[in-house]
Amino acid sequence: MASIGEFDARGVYTPSPATLTYRFLAWCVIAALFVFLLNVYLSFWHGWPGALAVVGDGSGALAWIQALTWAAVVGGPAVFVARTRRRSLRQDNEAMTAIATYIVNAAFWIVLLVGVVDAAISFLRVEGLLPGLFGDEMATELGRNHFRAPYIHGPLIVVALILAATVRKVGFAWLALLVVVAELQIVISRFIFSYEQAFMGDMVRMWYAGLFLFASAYTLIEEGHVRVDVLYSGFTQRTKGLVNAVGSVVLGLPFCWTIILLGMSKPTSIITNPLLSLEVTQSGFGMYIKYLMAAFLAVFAVSMAVQFTGYFLEGVADYRGEAGKRKLDSEAVAPGG
Questions:
Q1: Do 295 and 216 fall into the same domain?
Q2: pTM for this one?
Q3: Which of 56, 128, 129, 228 has the fewest CB atoms found within 10 Å of its own CB?
């Protein structure tokens, strides 16, 4: 429900210019985030020249395409907000929460599927069982990161993306259980059977990192993060909304964008470099997932940036006294545009 001041005498919701401005700016942040990631992929993986190449001599069509994607950062949100004028701030927050939920849900399925399959391959490899099962040539290929990543991890990632769209519940509790099980099997195999391999520790680290980084956006929307609370609990809902909105803009979003820009703006950056080289650990018989663990930082920053943007809209709605709390009152405002 929107604030009372945005309903006319007939009870029809008419958004104020401030509401439209907040929505436009929020969606510009989301658009800029994904356009930046798209251009990183085009420039570093496919050798496109980059949007800035349009100001140089001999700029080609590829540079102009990338420049137009940045123009869409403003044009896309403007069209979307104009076509969905009757959406409230809380509705947009729900949409952004859905985007962040899909991202972390997909990441959960990726670490689960890739972790289990890659650990199984590493176990067969360290025990010398791959040649007997798949032949010498395939066994050799499975020992190369430039084969295992695109031909084993790639299809599993596609399956994970599909599962994330169909199985909506985020399984962080299951991932926490898997971390415990993985650590337990290390203890049992080490102290009872005197057996330990590098891939066993790699799997624990992979799932442990995924658990904490992927669950951050979910924990944010559930207000589960540790808050040094001296004054906040005594604030009114309106004041809390102001604090959350300002904090999202001043602290949350700059933090996320710092990780994204420093980690992905160059081919040698801390996130893009391992992804480009499909980096693996120094242990030859460990899991080939170090490059994915670098991507965990990007998943964390992107999901948190999306959620902080929605949190900003939620805070503004609280400050303005709009009814509802993360759940839209559908009887008051018709959905859609």
A1: yes
A2: 0.86
A3: 228
